[in-house]
Specification:
Order of helices and strands: EEEEEEEE
Helix content: under 10%
Shape: elongated
Oligomer: single chain
Distance between the termini: 34 Å
Number of helices: 0
Structural class: mainly beta
Radius of gyration: 18 Å
Length: 143
């Protein structure tokens, strides 16, 4: 089951999209079917922050990912909930070309729940006419 709400908080001009939006989403699935069975996301998105002709957005958000204990391997400590922060910038031109950059920091709750670990992820890509190019750098730091 999936629920989502999006609310305009502020607009420069009531007739245009430039301004600040708030978003909240909740995703749930049965714990015996999906390892990531509950996810909550909340964030702010600023539409058209840059004075350019193409559509552009900048956003920041929080992610909470509840992991099902039914998938924990026997003899290992229980998983903890994962928490993360995300920042994204997106530029869209002519409805068929999109460039996006995303940066996330996630406190992992999976394998190493006792000591915890963090995942830092930097993603970027160009999408256009069905072709995709992505660069993903993943760094895992044990704490």
């Amino acid at each position: 089951m999936y629920w989502m709400a999006n609310q305009a908080l502020w607009r420069v001009d009531a007739k245009q999209a430039k301004g600040l939006d708030a978003t909240v989403a909740y995703n749930w699935s049965p714990a015996n079917i999906n390892r990531n069975n509950t996810m909550l996301t909340a964030g702010l998105r600023f539409n058209e922050p840059l004075p350019v002709r193409i559509h552009n957005t900048m956003s920041v958000g929080y992610v909470r990912n509840q992991l099902s204990q039914k998938f924990v391997p026997q003899g290992t400590p229980p998983w903890k909930t994962e928490h993360g922060l995300n920042s994204t910038r997106c530029w869209t031109s002519h409805r068929c070309f999109c460039y996006s950059r995303s940066f996330s920091i996630t406190q992992r709750g999976g394998k190493n729940a006792e000591g915890g670990s963090f995942r830092i992820q930097n993603q970027g890509g160009v999408l256009g006419n069905g072709d995709a190019m992505k660069t993903i750098v993943v760094l895992i730091l044990a704490t």
